[in-house]
Amino acid sequence: MSPIAAPVGEGTRVVLNFSLSLEDGSEVDSNFGGEPVEFVIGDGNLLPGFERHLFGMAAGDRQIFTVTPEDAFGQINDSNVQMVPRKQFDEDTELEIGLLFSFSDAGGGELPGMVISFDEQDVEVDFNHPLAGRTIMFDVLIHRVEPTELH
Fold first, then answer.
1. Pair 21, 62 in one domain
2. What pLDDT was estimated at residue 60?
3. Per the domain annotation, does 3 fall within a domain?
4. What is the pLDDT of residues 91-145, one digit of tens each?
5. Contacts of 123 (CB under 8 A, 6+ apart)
6. Higher-scoring residue by pLDDT: 92, 150
7. Same domain, yes or no, for 68 and 141?
8. Which residues have C-beta within 8 Å of that of residue 33, sequence separation ≥ 6?
Protein backbone atom coordinates (compact mmCIF):
# COMPACT_ATOMS: atom_id res chain seq x y z
CA MET A 1 0.00 0.00 0.00
CA SER A 2 1.48 3.38 -0.99
CA PRO A 3 1.48 6.31 1.43
CA ILE A 4 -1.27 8.88 1.02
CA ALA A 5 0.06 12.16 -0.40
CA ALA A 6 -0.13 14.80 2.31
CA PRO A 7 -0.92 18.43 1.50
CA VAL A 8 1.46 21.18 2.54
CA GLY A 9 0.83 22.19 6.16
CA GLU A 10 2.50 22.57 9.55
CA GLY A 11 5.13 19.91 10.11
CA THR A 12 5.64 18.99 6.45
CA ARG A 13 8.83 18.86 4.40
CA VAL A 14 8.31 20.45 0.99
CA VAL A 15 10.42 20.03 -2.15
CA LEU A 16 9.70 22.71 -4.77
CA ASN A 17 10.87 24.96 -7.57
CA PHE A 18 9.96 28.63 -7.37
CA SER A 19 10.41 31.99 -8.97
CA LEU A 20 9.88 35.49 -7.62
CA SER A 21 8.96 38.27 -10.05
CA LEU A 22 7.87 41.87 -9.75
CA GLU A 23 4.48 43.01 -11.02
CA ASP A 24 6.10 44.21 -14.25
CA GLY A 25 7.21 40.62 -14.92
CA SER A 26 10.92 41.13 -14.22
CA GLU A 27 12.32 38.05 -12.48
CA VAL A 28 14.09 38.58 -9.16
CA ASP A 29 15.02 34.98 -8.31
CA SER A 30 14.27 31.52 -9.68
CA ASN A 31 15.43 27.94 -9.37
CA PHE A 32 13.32 26.62 -12.26
CA GLY A 33 15.74 24.84 -14.57
CA GLY A 34 17.83 23.84 -11.54
CA GLU A 35 17.57 21.58 -8.53
CA PRO A 36 14.47 22.06 -6.39
CA VAL A 37 14.86 23.32 -2.83
CA GLU A 38 13.74 21.44 0.27
CA PHE A 39 12.62 22.92 3.55
CA VAL A 40 10.31 22.27 6.49
CA ILE A 41 7.29 24.55 6.93
CA GLY A 42 8.11 26.94 9.78
CA ASP A 43 11.91 26.46 9.70
CA GLY A 44 12.52 30.09 8.72
CA ASN A 45 13.82 29.38 5.21
CA LEU A 46 10.71 30.92 3.65
CA LEU A 47 8.89 34.01 4.85
CA PRO A 48 5.61 33.12 6.59
CA GLY A 49 3.69 35.20 4.04
CA PHE A 50 5.01 32.93 1.27
CA GLU A 51 4.55 29.72 3.28
CA ARG A 52 0.85 30.40 3.91
CA HIS A 53 0.19 30.34 0.16
CA LEU A 54 1.55 26.79 -0.04
CA PHE A 55 -0.86 25.34 2.54
CA GLY A 56 -3.17 22.77 0.96
CA MET A 57 -1.03 22.31 -2.18
CA ALA A 58 0.12 18.77 -3.04
CA ALA A 59 2.81 17.14 -5.16
CA GLY A 60 2.39 18.11 -8.81
CA ASP A 61 0.52 21.35 -8.07
CA ARG A 62 1.75 24.58 -9.65
CA GLN A 63 0.33 28.00 -8.85
CA ILE A 64 1.21 31.65 -9.12
CA PHE A 65 0.37 33.85 -6.13
CA THR A 66 0.41 37.60 -5.68
CA VAL A 67 2.08 38.44 -2.37
CA THR A 68 1.58 41.94 -0.96
CA PRO A 69 4.47 43.83 0.66
CA GLU A 70 3.02 43.16 4.13
CA ASP A 71 3.33 39.39 3.52
CA ALA A 72 6.61 39.64 1.61
CA PHE A 73 9.47 42.01 2.49
CA GLY A 74 7.44 44.68 4.29
CA GLN A 75 6.68 48.28 3.48
CA ILE A 76 9.43 50.83 3.04
CA ASN A 77 10.31 52.29 6.44
CA ASP A 78 11.60 55.87 6.16
CA SER A 79 13.55 55.45 9.42
CA ASN A 80 15.68 52.83 7.61
CA VAL A 81 17.17 55.61 5.47
CA GLN A 82 20.18 57.03 7.32
CA MET A 83 22.79 59.72 6.75
CA VAL A 84 26.30 58.32 7.21
CA PRO A 85 29.31 60.67 7.39
CA ARG A 86 31.37 60.45 4.19
CA LYS A 87 34.53 60.02 6.31
CA GLN A 88 33.26 56.55 7.38
CA PHE A 89 33.94 55.33 3.83
CA ASP A 90 37.47 54.68 2.58
CA GLU A 91 38.91 57.72 0.83
CA ASP A 92 39.57 55.71 -2.33
CA THR A 93 36.00 54.35 -2.50
CA GLU A 94 34.20 55.71 -5.55
CA LEU A 95 30.62 56.17 -4.45
CA GLU A 96 27.79 55.58 -6.90
CA ILE A 97 24.03 55.66 -6.47
CA GLY A 98 22.82 52.05 -6.20
CA LEU A 99 26.11 50.75 -4.75
CA LEU A 100 25.61 48.22 -1.94
CA PHE A 101 27.77 48.23 1.16
CA SER A 102 27.82 45.91 4.15
CA PHE A 103 27.60 47.70 7.49
CA SER A 104 27.89 46.26 11.02
CA ASP A 105 24.73 46.48 13.08
CA ALA A 106 24.59 46.99 16.86
CA GLY A 107 24.66 43.22 17.43
CA GLY A 108 27.76 42.69 15.30
CA GLY A 109 25.84 41.24 12.36
CA GLU A 110 26.01 42.46 8.79
CA LEU A 111 23.43 44.83 7.40
CA PRO A 112 23.35 45.67 3.69
CA GLY A 113 22.73 49.28 2.75
CA MET A 114 22.37 50.94 -0.66
CA VAL A 115 23.71 54.39 -1.48
CA ILE A 116 20.82 56.59 -2.65
CA SER A 117 22.61 59.99 -2.63
CA PHE A 118 25.85 61.59 -1.47
CA ASP A 119 27.81 64.80 -1.31
CA GLU A 120 31.19 65.82 0.15
CA GLN A 121 30.03 65.46 3.78
CA ASP A 122 27.31 62.80 3.90
CA VAL A 123 26.14 59.61 2.25
CA GLU A 124 22.42 58.75 2.32
CA VAL A 125 22.05 54.99 2.78
CA ASP A 126 18.85 52.95 2.48
CA PHE A 127 18.80 49.93 4.80
CA ASN A 128 15.33 48.73 3.67
CA HIS A 129 15.24 45.33 1.96
CA PRO A 130 15.61 45.94 -1.80
CA LEU A 131 12.16 44.38 -2.32
CA ALA A 132 10.44 46.34 0.48
CA GLY A 133 7.24 47.98 -0.71
CA ARG A 134 7.01 45.69 -3.74
CA THR A 135 4.22 43.26 -4.61
CA ILE A 136 5.77 39.92 -5.56
CA MET A 137 4.53 37.27 -8.00
CA PHE A 138 5.40 33.89 -6.43
CA ASP A 139 5.36 30.95 -8.91
CA VAL A 140 5.61 27.55 -7.21
CA LEU A 141 5.79 23.95 -8.44
CA ILE A 142 5.49 21.36 -5.66
CA HIS A 143 7.49 18.14 -6.24
CA ARG A 144 7.05 16.35 -2.91
CA VAL A 145 5.32 16.86 0.42
CA GLU A 146 6.31 14.58 3.31
CA PRO A 147 5.47 14.56 7.01
CA THR A 148 8.50 15.35 9.17
CA GLU A 149 9.57 13.20 12.08
CA LEU A 150 8.64 14.92 15.31
CA HIS A 151 11.16 14.39 18.10
1. yes
2. 96
3. no
4. 888 999 999 999 888 888 888 999 999 999 999 999 999 899 999 999 999 999 9
5. 83, 84, 85, 86, 88, 89, 95, 115, 117
6. 92
7. yes
8. none
pLDDT tens sequence across 1-28: 445 568 999 989 999 999 999 999 999 9
Question: DSSP assignment, residue 46?
Answer: S
Cα 8 to Cα 11: distance, rounded to the nearest angstrom: 9
Alpha-carbon distances, residue 117 vs 37, 49, 112, 123, 136 (angstroms): 37, 32, 16, 6, 26
Q: What is the domain range of residue 33?
A: 12-73+132-147
Same domain membership, residue 57 and residue 31: yes
Residues 139 and 69 reside in one and the same domain:
yes
Q: For residues 30 and 102, state if they share a domain.
A: no
In what helix (H) or strand (E) does residue 137 lie, and over which residues does it extend? strand 136-147
* Alpha helices per DSSP H over 77-129: none
Domain containing residue 43: CATH number: 3.10.50.40
Coil, helix or strand at residue 72 = coil
**Is the pLDDT reported for residue 150 higher than 80?**
no
Query: Is pLDDT of 86 > 70?
Result: yes
Neighbours of 145 (CB within 10 A): 22
